[in-house]
Amino acid sequence: MAVKYDYLIVGAGLYGAVFAHEAVKAGRSCLVIDKRDHIGGNIYTEEIEGINVHKYGAHIFHTSNKAVWAFMNGFAEFNRYTNSPVAIYKDELYNLPFNMNTFHALWGVITPEEAKQEIERQKMEAALPEGRQPQNMAEAAIGLVGKDIFEKLVKGYTAKQWGRCAEELPPFIIKRLPVRFTYDNNYFNDRYQGIPIGGYTRIIEKMLEGCDVRLSSDFFADRKELCALADTVVFTGMIDEYYDYRFGELEYRSLRFENKVLDTQNFQGNAVVNYTEYEIPYTRIIEHKHFEFGAQDKTVITYEYPMAWKKGDEPYYPLNDDRNNRLYEQYRALADKEKNLIFGGRLGRYRYYDMHQVVACALEDSLQALKG
Questions:
Q1: What span, in angstroms and rounded, lies between the C-alpha atoms of 303 and 163?
Q2: Please, how many CA atoms are within 13 Å of residue 295, restricted to the half-sphere of its CB?
């Protein structure tokens, strides 16, 4: 007779692992499955040449939530890495986020007041009719930082990242980009920030202790049998796929990664370098050793190429425009009627989450579930 579990958790990524850990801690039994041949989901790290390589793009943990930070530090010690990416536009180099170093490189300004005056001048040149709010990302970006920054650091990068020009994207996307009138290259404004020493995979391994784990396991191929093994299903895949695309496909963006091992100690001098001009097909190059201040003889770099998503591709980012959000609400309405079924993570909730938000959601969802 098959073993009966309290929870079947579909997806061994961060959300699933946090939920599983809390469930096991409360005395519940969990079967965790994943279609990939490894745990960790998109935060999986793999050691190459003594370097912890972020196999699915750069992941820097940051949060102002003290409880979440304390929770994560229960599984690993975090180093003092501070995310300070740089951007290259043609032969020009700029600091990110948009700050006084960026403004000085663009306009030669030195004081915050000079920078504000120049941005205000550019905003006035492109001012919207009185009372009209920005209708797209281009209008929102120019209204936030002026035309120069939009043209050099936002326009091309955005078109590559989302597969649409900024005029076709919702205005809220630009709100993720910080603007500061200080000489501070720290991208995140959170109180806590760092990279787990030894990589993220070790964290997930510890979270999944006490669980049964099956890898290379296709939920949809054995759905009936797997669901019969547990009282409750925690699903972290695509919510539209779970419902067999009943109302149509939600849109996502995918990524392709090209890794190279180089016989040099230091390729670009920074963990993340963005390439903002549209003509360069990749959005950034990641040099992984700099996340942990590595001094290895060799280095590993990753070129990150955004891609259109189609069925069968790996979905990375939900495309949260009005049409897709309305479609998601139809699926959400189905989910709300379900019993013993929990949707979680970026794909299950069709929302862009940072890692600390995923952890917070998983902790809250598990708390609510375990009360029942």
A1: 17
A2: 0
Could you list the active site residues?
176, 180, 253, 284, 304, 352, 354
Structural domains counted in the chain: 2
Mean pLDDT by 10 residues, the chain (372 residues): 86 98 98 98 97 97 98 98 97 96 98 96 83 85 91 95 90 79 95 97 98 98 96 98 97 97 98 97 98 97 96 92 95 96 98 96 97 78
Is residue 281 reached through a cis peptide bond, with omega within 30 degrees of 0 on the bond before it?
no
pTM for this prediction: 0.94
Predicted local distance difference test score (pLDDT) of residue 176: 67
323: domain range?
5-79+192-250+319-371
Residues 26 and 166 grouped into a single domain? no
